[in-house]
Amino acid sequence: MRDTHSNSLGWLLDKELGAVEGVEYAVLMSSDGLLQARTETIGQEDAEKLAALTASLRAAGKAWDEHVGGKGMCQLLIESQGRIGLTTAAARNSMLSVVTAGPDADVGLISHHMVRLATRLGHELEVGDRHPVSEGGTAT
User: Fold this and answer.
1) In Å, what is the CA distance from 137 to each residue of 36, 39, 68, 123, 125?
2) What is the spatial distance between Cα 113 and Cα 86, in angstroms, rounded to a whole number?
3) Which of 43, 80, 114, 133 is the most buried (most CB within 10 A)?
4) Alpha carbons 97 and 131: distance in angstroms, whole number
């Protein structure tokens, strides 16, 4: 298992999102839920679970958007009693997901930083297409 914090994107998430007031942790994942990077404030195993959960929520959000005749899902927000989760498209085949430190976090500020990071560094956050091993891809 590779450590997704020690790569350059983990450092970038720490700097750009981990330092934002109200952010407990952040992850970058492929659109199908494969963890790419994480802040140091979330462990590898928990980050992998969050990436998989986020991919499921994204699929539900896309289905909802299609059902209501939307023009594409931009951001997903989930609010619970103790936390708020935000997910946004980061680049081709990738998403950023942030979990707040509490229910009173400034969602507008956090969302602004997420979109700013994705806009400024989208090419670095991009995840290539994955193909099954049977089609010449590599196992991950």
Assistant:
1) 17, 28, 36, 22, 20
2) 11
3) 114
4) 24
Within 8 A by CB and 6+ apart from 70, the residues are 64
| DSSP 3-state of 84 | strand
| pLDDT digits 0-9 by tens, 21-79 | 999 999 999 888 999 999 999 999 999 999 999 999 989 999 999 999 989 888 899 99
What are the distances in angstroms from CA 69 to CA 56, 65, 66, 72, 73?
Answer: 20, 6, 5, 9, 11
The whole model's pTM is what?
0.81
What does the pLDDT look like over 93-125, one tens digit per residue?
889 999 999 999 999 999 999 999 888 766 665
